Amino acid sequence: MDFMVFQYPMISVQACLDGILLGILFALIAYGMALQWGVMNIINIAQGDLVILGGYIAYFMYLYGIHPAWGVIVAPVIMYFVGIAIYKLVINKVVDRDLFISILATFGISILFMQLMNFAFGADVVLANSDYGTTMLFNNNVVLPNSKIFSAFISILFAICLVIYMKKSKLGRAIRATAQNARAAKILGVDTEKVYAATFGINAALCGVAGALISITFTIHPYMGLPYTIRSFMIVIVAGLGNLPGVAMSGMGLGVFEEFADYILGTEFRIGSVFLLLVLILIYRRFKLSKKREYLK
Amino acid sequence: MRLNKIILSFVSALVILFSTSVASFAKVVGDKIILGAAISLTGKYSSNGVHTQNGYNMAVDRINSMGGVKVGGKTYKFDIIYYDDESNPKRAAQLAERLISQDGVEFMLGPYSSGLTKAIAPVTEKYGVPMVEANGASRSLFTKGYKYLFAVLAPANLYLDVAIDLAVEKNNGKPVTVAMAFEQDAFSQDVRLGVLDAIKRTGSKKVIDDKLPKELNDMAATLVKVKQMKPDVLVVSGHTKGALTAIRQISEMKVDVPMLAMTHCDAAKLSKQHGKNSQYALCASQWHKTLTYKDNFFKDGMTYDADFTKEFGYAPPYQAAESSAALLVFKDAFERANSFDQKKVRDALAATNMQTFYGNIKFAEGGQNVDKPMVLFQVMCDDAGKCENKVVAPTKWASAKLIHPIPSWSKR
Q1: 8 Å CB contact of B43 and A118
Q2: Min CA distance, A194 vs chain B (Å)?
Q3: Is A266 on the interface with B (CB under 8 A)?
Q4: Chain A, 29-88: which have a CB under 8 Å from a chain B CB?
Q5: B241/A219 Cβ within 8 A
Q6: Which residue has the higher pLDDT, B187 or B107?
Q7: Which residue of B has its CA nearest to A14?
Q8: Chain A partners of B210 at a C-beta cutoff of 8 Å?
Q9: Which of A122, A136, A147 comes nearest B46 by C-beta?
């Protein structure tokens, strides 16, 4: 245990800001997960692998001399079609089955993607340099890489666009209708098959954006997907489905929690602490729900 | 009765088939000495696995084309059976078992990484198969009393202790403060033990001792602590991802530290991925092309570098060089043993005392090479942004003077 973070107030500020910026990025991935979970009742274990694939798109643009920031436009477009393809090949066969089947299917997709990426791009750790520089705050005591600020900004922008799209567009309304009651939507003329495909595509596109941002901010590697899946799973569990402000808040909360866990418990417990938190939250929710059940009795 | 006859003939046919197939793969067939190797051609170690394979193949071709191995007045050529261990220790152990008991291999080459070597060593030991390995540096490999394991490389605890000595020397012999960030794997933890020994020996003080997770891609928290504590040396070891992440975040967060020492810089292609941001980083390396060791097959480091680049299209990282050296050791041992008896070859290996382009090779009791020091190189860039790795320590091999302390980011 190390309580340095409390001895130096500036470290706390740094940890909070780092956590919030990171959390916004997590929230974007989690929002995609919440969307497809809500609409299709599918928990996508391959979420993190879609993120990493998006990262590779930005990385290859960078390799060919294009600024990786353009990846946030190119990656979602490509990933949208990847998402549609996965839906047509696998997901449409499991969409009405129980949750366990879909978890197994997406787990399989996750392994397949990991190996394919390893095969195609090699096992090297890669990154895309943005050369965005650094912002210094509080008399140089707090440093924020501009790439992190850029990531958070782009994530917010995409989230806002998506909310507007879901509210205003015809497809957005169809997606929301299907989420509420797929059967009723079908009776009223919504082509649910198309809605499912689009939802999966949109989720993959969001993963693409997040991946591009991660390759600009951190590093990517074919086997790095799972921690992102776990984080988004946990954010969705906390926030619930179809609750964007909730997803954003719990994303930032998780980011800050991770940073503090890193300082206090040590970097080695960073991911472990996320799992621990997940368990605690599940226990807490169960406890709360059982109370509710008592009222009903 | 007829059924019994059919079964009998079927079984004997199988036995004959099996025995011939084993014979066709046995250790020495005609003029071929067949070595076995399980290598990570897929999975997370695949890039270094390929370097290892390229190193082995290069040496096999070279030795074969320059007269092969002379045993008992006859000339033999090397051949290697490869299997892909998928970067998975369990699979590696299975494959070692298969190479030895099914394919009849009697001499083995090592896989890539300490973890996989650890998985294979008990198998080769059980069957008494001599294994020369070039990519497992973990100290724990050499403390188990293995009799058939020989490593041409220096053990992991010697990777970065030189850096601490160097920092103390630059501090006029006075103790220094050290910040450490090590991944939690066998190799990095051994590097850490070496650094701890050096800290104790020099009376220095560790101020940060972080352990990095396997799925590391963010070490901002460690670096914030480094900014706060201002240590004299920052030591990082976390394979290629540790090196890449450290340089990215140190440059973005403008962390000033007088000395930065790391492992796996050349495998990470640091200067290619990060350009000038990687400047001044000190890197531990098993080998560097400018070292002046010599042998009859590859001549010297510079020639090896040129030949390898010509053949494979990229400059050899030390993982390739040490793999090539492993075959030179085998050749030397076979010729001195003048036999293919495993016990005799094992004894000849234990008595190895030779120089290769990669360095001097002499094995200690535990099988580690004790005659080859590690080198430290520093990434140095010119004004045009072209970066090169130059050896700065030990002084005997230095091709450039260490730049110390590292200029602060505000002046770069």
Answers
A1: yes
A2: 36
A3: yes
A4: none
A5: yes
A6: B107
A7: B224
A8: 266-268
A9: A122
Residue of B nearest to A214 (CA): B217
Q: Chain B contact for A115, CB < 8 A? A: yes
Whether B218 and A22 lie within 8 Å, measured CB to CB: yes
* Residue B20 pLDDT > 60: no
Query: Each residue of B320-359: pLDDT tens digit?
Result: 999 999 999 999 999 999 999 999 999 999 999 999 999 9
What is the average per-residue pLDDT within A120-124?
81
The domain limits of chain A are: 4-296
pLDDT digits (tens, 9 = 90+) for B99-119: 999 999 999 999 998 889 999
Of B42, B222, B273, the CB nearest to A118: B42
Nearby residues of A7 by Cβ (< 8 Å), 6 or more positions away: none
Are the beta carbons of B259 and B404 closer than 8 angstroms?
yes
- Report CA-CA distances (Å) from B369 to A57, B10, B243, B297, B353: 43, 51, 26, 20, 10
Domains and CATH numbers, chain B: 22-154+291-362 (3.40.50.2300), 158-285+374-411 (3.40.50.2300)
- Of A118, A80, A88, A94, nearest to A45 by C-alpha is A94
Is A123–B228 a contact, with Cβ atoms under 8 angstroms apart?
Answer: no
Are B149 and B121 a contacting pair, CB within 8 Å? yes
Fold classified for A4-296: ABC transporter involved in vitamin B12 uptake, BtuC (1.10.3470)
CB contact under 8 A, A263 and B221: yes
